[in-house]
Design a protein that fits this description.
By secondary structure, the chain is an all-alpha fold. The chain contains three helices and no strands. The chain is 67% helix and 0% strand.
Amino acid sequence: MTYPSGSISVPAARAMNRNVNTVERVIGRLKRYRAASTRYDKLAIRYEATIQIAIILDLKPSS
């Protein structure tokens, strides 16, 4: 990500890049779940539930 000279301070740019990186990695992890990455559900509430289930399964420790 590039910023015009003087438009944003270096610490702020680093913080933004850190947040962007975190979001991109979470989306990459969610893409393992086909229903979440292709959005089969037409209703937003069902899609949100699919995302929440994918997050729970992703955070669940493997046995």
